[in-house]
Amino acid sequence: SSGINAEWPLRPGGSYGKVDELFKVAEKKLGRPPTLKEATEDLFKVTVVRNPVTKLLSGYRDKVERVSATGIRPGMFKFNPDLNVNSTKAEKYKAFVQAVTAGKLRNHHFTPQWHKMKICDFPYDAILQTETANEQIKVVQEHTNTSQYIFPGSRAETGRDEGISTLQRTRGYYSLFEPELMDKLYNYFLWDFVLMGYSKLDNPNFPHLDFDQDIKKEFGHLLKNHIDMVTANPGTDGTNKPTAKP
Fold first, then answer.
1. Distance separating alpha carbons of residues 98 and 87, to the nearest angstrom
2. 217/136 Cα distance (integer angstroms)
3. DSSP label at 5?
4. Which is it for strands 46-49 and 126-129: parallel, antiparallel or unpaired?
5. 105, 99 Cβ separation under 8 angstroms
6. CA 12 – CA 17 distance, rounded (Å)
7. How far apart are the C-alpha atoms of 98 and 105, rounded to whole Å?
8. Euclidean distance between CA atoms 109 and 106, whole angstroms
9. Which helix (H) or strand (E) holds 49?
10. Crossing angle of helices 179-188/215-232, nearest 10°?
11. Nearest-angstrom CA–CA distance, 85 and 89
């Protein structure tokens, strides 16, 4: 988020910066507590999202596979007790997805983006997609007077595994999933797909956006299940968590 100058003395603090300073400066200018929109109106506010299917696989590779000798977390054994160091990467990833969608493995890298990034609540000026960030970054540069700089944009994830990118692994890994598990995965990231227009694996446009996709046809049964759960559990999303309305 650029456009910061001496009048907006943001400094690095924790993971997200001292956002409270925005409100202090705005309150001083307005003479009253500001709204979120008023406190951030002088900034160009940007977030970057990614197809949740590839993002989850990337999260596993980066936060599990690359930081442990086995590529296994304890919560994964519940779904495949036979997992061991010699299990295939695809077998380990399947157990990982089962654990995440069942709520047995929690990490902010694995959570739905729409909720984490407050897509429905925060007044973003631009929401960029990782898949096309190389082009979209130009819009940000135009609004922030940074066109003279070169931004790296999206990168290939080579890591330590023979230079094979996450996207290259995607279809091979998910092809081993039963339809029921894919449904659980799509349901877990339901609002990322619906609100951000991302395409499913069987969509010809995958992994890019597809705002022409038939939401009712592709996600109708999941939306119905979600509505039924919320109706049965008012104030929750069916998993005993507060529900934000998209």
1. 16
2. 29
3. -
4. parallel
5. yes
6. 5
7. 9
8. 8
9. strand 46-49
10. 70
11. 9
- Separation between Cα atoms, residue 85 and residue 25, nearest integer Å: 54
pLDDT of residue 72: 94
Residues for the chain: how many in total? 246
pLDDT one-digit tens code per residue, 46-100: 999 999 999 999 999 999 998 988 999 989 999 999 999 999 999 999 999 999 9
- DSSP state letter for 237: S
Helix axes 166-174, 89-101, angle to 10 degrees: 80
Q: Which of 191, 185, 188, 57 lies closest to 114 in space, CA to CA?
A: 191
- pLDDT of res. 240: 40
**Cis link prior to 33 (omega < 30° from 0)?**
no
Q: How far is CA 143 from CA 26, 63, 80, in A?
A: 21, 34, 50
Residue for token digits 């922030």? 144
pLDDT band at 181 (very low <50, low <70, confident <90, very high): very high
Average pLDDT over residues 105-123: 89
Q: Provide the residue type at 165 as one letter.
A: S
Quick one: average pLDDT of 9-31? 69
